[in-house]
Specification:
Structural class: alpha+beta
Radius of gyration: 24 Å
Helix content: 25-40%
Length: about 240
């Protein structure tokens, strides 16, 4: 097939093998043995990532399950919840199951989060990303270091979930919407392990504390924010894994 044929094929209208509707230009979502429209893809599990390797029959089966899941949500009664502006965990401790919403201000029946049984969870742990960059100042048209040097440390906290659920196998749930920043002044912090970065930074600040009161207040507030979400992630994991 030549380049022109490939381009023409992309714009060719197709029929959805799931609902039978017409698929508009550039709206086709390929399956292993057929085609799927964007509206049918929206009905799949929010954590499902294997659509291209799924058959038409498997997608139809999943959509049927998804409607059953929506009905089951009517009997879901949360006993405890965790989260704020990102990844709201609703936990039904009596029936040992939970759901995760992408944020708090959404309709649970519209999002239709998968109900995951505690016994389906194979791994659940706090995960974190960390990076550090030196901050510079413009002087005589050039970016130069502060004296002493200043660094911006960026943290992101997640709960990583691995399950035996048929459609929600693995997901990394962010615990906050924006990256958390901690600002320090002094030498560059050296560290060995990514997950130890927050503890390393706390110990580092014991040796190189902020010089003035305003900076001390700021860095204490920034660290408190980091520990808040780190502790939240640990509590989510304990609640579900010890369910």
């Amino acid at each position: 097939m030549g380049l022109f044929d490939k381009i023409a094929g992309a714009f060719e209208k197709k029929q959805c093998d799931i609902c039978g509707g017409e698929i508009g230009m550039l709206g086709n979502k390929k399956l292993e043995n057929g085609n799927c429209c964007k509206e049918c893809v929206k009905k799949l599990s929010p954590w499902f990532t294997d659509r291209k390797h799924s058959t038409v029959e498997e997608i139809i089966e999943q959509i049927e399950y998804r409607e059953q899941n929506r009905e089951a949500l009517k009997d879901f009664h949360e006993t405890v919840s965790f989260g704020e502006d990102s990844s709201l965990f609703l936990i039904d401790q009596q029936k040992r199951r939970f759901v995760v919403l992408p944020r708090s201000n959404v309709d649970i029946y519209q999002v239709n989060p998968d109900i995951i049984e505690f016994d389906q969870v194979r791994e659940m742990k706090l995960d974190m990303s960390y990076s550090s960059v030196e901050e510079k100042i413009m002087r005589d048209g050039q970016r130069v270091s502060y004296n002493p040097p200043r660094y911006e440390h960026t943290f992101n906290f997640y709960v990583k979930i691995v399950t035996d659920h048929p459609y929600a196998h693995e997901h990394r749930c962010p615990l906050h919407a924006r990256s958390l920043k901690v600002h320090t002044a002094g030498p560059k912090m050296s560290r060995s392990y990514r997950l130890d970065a927050l503890e390393d930074l706390t110990r580092f600040l014991d040796y190189y504390p902020p010089i003035n009161y305003r900076d001390r207040v700021q860095v204490d507030r920034e660290l408190d924010d980091c520990y808040y979400f780190a502790h939240m992630g640990d509590e989510i994991c304990r609640t579900i894994m010890r369910g």
